[in-house]
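Dear colleagues,

I hope this message finds you well. In preparation for our joint manuscript, I am sending the MATE family efflux transporter (Luteimonas gilva) sequence together with its predicted structure, so that both groups work from identical material. I would be grateful if you could confirm receipt.
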Amino acid sequence: MKTSRDLTQGPIGPTLLAFLLPILAGGVLQSLNGSVNAVWVGRFLGEQALTATANANNIMFFLVGAVFGIGMASTILVGQSIGAKDMVQAKRVIGTSFTFFVAISLTIALVGMLLSHRILVWMSTPAEALPLAEAYLRIVFMAVPFIYVFAMLQATLRGAGDTRTPFVFLLMGVGLDIAFNPLFIFGIGPFPEMGIAGSATAMLIANSVSLAAMILWLRHKRHPLWISRHENRVYKPDWGILRALIVKGVPMGLQMIVISLAMIMMISMVNGYGVDTTSAYGAAMQLWAYIQMPAMAIGAACSSMAAQNVGAKRWDRVSAAARTGILFNFLLTGVLILPTIAFDRSTLSLFLPEGSAALEHARHLNHIAVWSFLFFGVTFVISGVVRATGAVLPPLLILAMALWGIRIPFAEFLQPSLGADAIWWSFPVSSVCAMLMSLAYYKWGGWRKARMLAPHAEEVAIPAEVPAQPPSPVADQGTKV
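The corresponding structure tokens are as follows:
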């Protein structure tokens, strides 16, 4: 069965929906996997073990975030090449990406295993949890090469219009992780009893097996992007492509850091209102993690669709993808928000103890803040579309302005008059501002003239809705528009 989609053909709506659903399902799978593993560790190994995994997983989140943008840059480059029907260029991108990810992941794994103890001490990991965290983190670092290469293959397949294959093998990995966790933690049957290290070992095995299975499947199917033995020269890094991966990928990766730091600032403000308010906020955040998934999936799907159509110079379809993505965001995100409002007592009480005084706080703040994800979703979609040309810096600047120029100052300066409500209202206020800034850049910004790679000698096409301009020495510098 054909899994790759030509995103330059066919009706926009059904094509985009079929493409994004596996991305959305994959995000849900990964969240559920983390929740199930936390249950095994927290309930059966105790609070010290759960604290250890929380500290180690913070490092894992940082490591994944560090290459997140480079993976997205790879998606865009492959998508543009596929849209232009340039399979040679697509394989160059894949070969360079593979070499880069293998080299960087092996380096991180070796350094990380040597410095695990020092890293955890630097993070002020509680002394009683330190030995457990170190045992867990060393194995996590061993898994890094498999996680990175798997993420790179997911990104390249997504750029080629294939989201089903990554989902199938992600499903395999999650299934193996969930199955192996209790076996290695408790030493069931022939498996050794490893305690908390068993949870990390399950992750290592699950990722390595699913990666190997995906590679074998791609080879067996002779996937169009499979690099055969006589094409091995593409693994030699193309410095132009490598430069694009880093220069364009780093700003996209920085978005995760900007978001993470802003969330740390927000929770530090919430902590000042006591345990009930903090636990209420924590319960709401558990729901919000799922509510924002459709917007993230739609943004990723729109980026891939736009990239292929940029490569094919189908600017009409790029614009249509943006409009359809915004519509899907309101529909899918709205479908999730409405039950959390209508049945807020039931949904929020899932994350709070029976009879908790925090429940009413959680209901109150959720009613105010949950709507923000409708507006922030528009920003995700627009950012995904404009990044597909190589305009990666403006979305980062818009996000930074919305969070650090609007959300945090709003929450900080209005607390004397509004109390904790200033924090909750800062979410919709900043989200609306981010949406308006994104839409303004989409309409009037120069993202259509940005480039992922330096243009060749032939003239670069400019979409019909943008008036033709004389050549400029900075016309190809998408990060400066």
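For the figure legend, we might mention the following. The two ends are 42 Å apart (CA to CA). The chain has two domains: 24-237, 251-453.

With kind regards,
E.M.
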